[in-house]
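Good morning C.,

I know you're traveling, so I'll keep this short. The sequence:
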Amino acid sequence: MVKIIEQLGHEARPLFEAALATGRSPLEIAAAEIEGIDADGGALILPAASVSGRAIRKRELLLDAELDRIVRTASGERTAGRIFLNSRGEPWSAERLSQVFRSARMKAGISADVVMAGRGGGRASERK
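The tokens, ready to paste straight into the viewer:
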């Protein structure tokens, strides 16, 4: 995943760095909201979601120093909404994240067998 992150543009890099730091998929991290930052409790709370008809319950991630730096930088002065936004100031779509990942993967010279998504895995993994 590190080689892929090195090929990402500045707008996507923090989101993928957060995925790597937490072991969660970029799609899960893209859903993180500023309201879910619990600095006092040392947690980043990912909201419950429904993906492809599958319910995903609310998750609590450890907000260590690295993740805290990433989310604070990405959210800036904003007080509400998604933490990670694209260059238009909009939330990332699954389709756009996938495009960005594929492009960076190709630039890094990594096999197409390496895919972005993986349940609970922030690291890129080989297709099975």
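Safe travels,
E.
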